[in-house]
Amino acid sequence: MSVSSPTYSLRSLLEVGGSTLIISEERRIELDERGDLAASAVSVFELFEGAYLSDRTDEELRSIIEFVSRLRVAPVDGEVATLAGELSADLIGRGERIETEDVLIAATALHNETVVLTRNSDHFERMASVTVESY
Known about the structure:
By secondary structure, the chain is of the alpha/beta class. It contains six helices and five strands. It has helices at residues 25-32, 41-53, 57-68, 78-93, 100-111, 121-125, and strands at 12-14, 37-40, 72-74, 115-118, 132-134. Helix 2 (41-53) packs antiparallel against helix 5 and helix 4 (78-93) packs across helix 5. The protein starts with 11 loop residues before the first strand and ends with a strand.
């Protein structure tokens, strides 16, 4: 598995998925103190999906738009997709399949030579090559 040079410098790739996520001012302050943060485009998708499924769509959309505007969004390109395919095949071969979104987030972190900052460390820790930090 070959990892190319990062497309930009990131210290942490934030995994912030979940349809019930409500972003509070306290959480933004805590995350801001971590320094250079980015979100995978997949995590941004998960946030917006959750907002559109919410009973409070408008309120959540405003929070998400403001939150995401403070992050860099790391794209899923062909190299990330290739790496994700390799990671996913390995997990499936070991009988430890995880959600495709989490594999894409992990591949994005590997491609950008950074860590995954998540509340769902169990899935990401199944991939030995991925550095995971919980919050």
